[in-house]
Amino acid sequence: MILVEVSVLGAILAFIFAISMGGLLWWMLHPPAMVGAAVAKARRSLGAIKRILVPTTGIPYSERGVEMACRLGLEQNAEIVLTYVIEVPRTLPLGVPLEDAEEKGRQALDRAKEIVYLHELTPIALLERAREAAEGIIRVATEKEVDLIVVGIRPSLRGAQHIFLGRTSDTLLRRAPCEVLLDKLPD
Predict the structure, then answer these.
(1) Predicted pLDDT of residue 162
(2) For labeling, which of 14, 36, 57, 129 is most exposed (least CB within 10 Å)?
(3) How far apart are CA 56 and CA 83, in angstroms?
C-alpha cells in the first residue's frame, strides 16, 4: 500500500497552478476581435501625432483648442507648439515694434503654456509676426514639421449665422501642410 501525504501548502500551490493554467488556456482560446485594415490604419495614424500646433489668441475658445490638443497628444506624449501671430498691417514694416500686441501675445502664450503644463506635456511657445494670421500659422507648421493643427473657432455670431468659418480657418483648411482639426464651442 502506498501512503500519500497531502500538505496544505502543496494543495494551495496546486490549486493556484491549476487556476493560472486554466486562465492561460482561456486567454489563448479567446483572442481579441479582429479589426479591419482601415480601422488599424486610422488608429496607427493617430498614434503618429508627435507635434501639435495650436494657434492661440488668449480668448476662451482658443484656449479650449489648447486643452483639446493636450488631450489628443497625451497618449503619445506629443509636443504642443503654441503660437500667437501678430498681424502687422501692410502699411508697416514687419519688424516694427508693437509693444501692446507683443504683451498681449506673451500673456496669451503664458496662459496656454499653463494648460499644457497641467497635462505634463512639453510646450513650445512662439510669438510670430505676419501680414495675415493664417500665413504665420502655416509658416510655423512648416518650419516645426507639425503633424496636426488644432484651431478653436468662435461660436457663430448673432447676425452672421451664415458665416461658419473665418478667413484664418478657411485659409488653414485649404493650405495647411498637415491635418487641421477645428473645435467650435456650442452657442
Answers:
(1) 41
(2) 36
(3) 6
- Express each pLDDT in 31-52 by its tens digit: 877 777 777 666 666 667 899 9
DSSP letter for 7, please: -
Domains contained in the chain, CATH given: 48-184 (3.40.50.620)
Place of cell 498637415: 178
Q: Which of 54, 55, 62, 71 is nearest to 154 (CA)?
A: 62
Element (H, E) at 183: strand 179-184
Q: How confident is the model at residue 163 (pLDDT cuts 50, 70, 90)?
A: very low
80 DSSP β-pair partners? 52, 123
Question: Which pLDDT score, from 0 to 100, does residue 35 have?
Answer: 72
Q: How crowded is residue 65: how many other Cβ atoms within 10 Å of its Cβ?
A: 29
Q: How far apart are CA 20 and CA 10, in angstroms?
A: 15
Helix 167-175 with 133-143: angle, nearest 10 deg: 30
What pLDDT digit, counting tens, does each position of 167-177 carry?
888 889 899 99
**Residues contacting 139, CB < 8 A, separation 6+:** 128, 130
d(CA 126, CA 140): 9
- Helix, strand or coil for residue 2? coil
